[in-house]
Amino acid sequence: DADVTQTPRNRITKTGKRIMLECSQTKGHDRMYWYRQDPGLGLRLIYYSFDVKDINKGEISDGYSVSRQAQAKFSLSLESAIPNQTALYFCATSDLRTRLNEQFFGPGTRLTVL
Amino acid sequence: KQEVTQIPAALSVPEGENLVLNCSFTDSAIYNLQWFRQDPGKGLTSLLLIQSSQREQTSGRLNASLDKSSGRSTLYIAASQPGDSATYLCAVLDGGGSQGNLIFGKGTKLSVKP
Question: Residues of A with CB below 8 A from B41's CB?
Fold first, then answer.
């Protein structure tokens, strides 16, 4: 079984809809991240969380919100989806205890906003 | 603001050739540097992580070097195979490492021809 899972893997929605992307991990890591990937722009950090009570904005947080429901679960919400939020979304985890902060990524969610 | 650049953007080589992928970053105050592989439509697989105090890391046919003072890293792939075809991403972890903000390059798309 994959250590970092994301649901759904693909989603098509319409402008103005609320969407939630979910991430779960079985690695026991304390840190979790949400990135988006756009052609020509690379990956950019949306939000990150260092533990259940910690939420931090990344480079491009506008239009997004997150919830860390448990150590193993980190959800990303688009309150009112717009077409320029069409992208590939990745969840990642890392373990503070190793002091390496090596990040491990999920398989991604392809989101299309019409 | 940290910027990461990868050159070339795309590379096509015949099978068996040794090759080098380049990564440069503008701020030498990094915590570590990670190389990833991304297959089409898939997530990112961590290949190598080099801590800021290290000069290189090796895994199988892969060798990554780091010259922090000049802001450069290279990924050397020996005896390339068609299965190495993928996009290779370089990412640096900024500052003290506690912020968790990986800054990505846009990647080098590698094609190894049989």
Answer: 108, 110
